[in-house]
Design goal:
Shape: globular
Radius of gyration: 13 Å
Number of helices: 3
Mean pLDDT: 95
Distance between the termini: 34 Å
Largest sheet: none
Oligomer: single chain
Strand content: under 5%
Low-confidence stretches: none
Helix content: over 70%
Order of helices and strands: HHH
Number of domains: 1
Length: 74
């Protein structure tokens, strides 16, 4: 479930950047979780601890920051 949320959040970030040139924050992604849980196709996410799902979004955010920090540093 955490990997699914991580990958879905990654897709949202990539799509938003492609459309607007701006990224989506972890807080915005975290606010999307309840809608993902209510969606009939992904309602199984409601059975998982919400803190674990939120942590996967934080992990994605940290990975993004680390990647771009390393790119800036060369």
């Amino acid at each position: 479930c955490c990997r699914f949320v991580y990958n879905r959040a990654l897709d949202v970030k990539k799509s938003a950047y492609a459309k607007t040139g701006k990224t989506v924050s972890w807080a915005e992604l975290s606010r999307m979780l309840p809608a993902w849980k209510r969606n009939p196709e992904t309602s199984w996410l409601a059975q998982v601890d919400s803190m674990a799902l939120q942590q996967s979004i934080r992990d994605l955010d940290r990975a993004y920051k680390n990647f771009f920090r390393r790119v800036r540093e060369g």
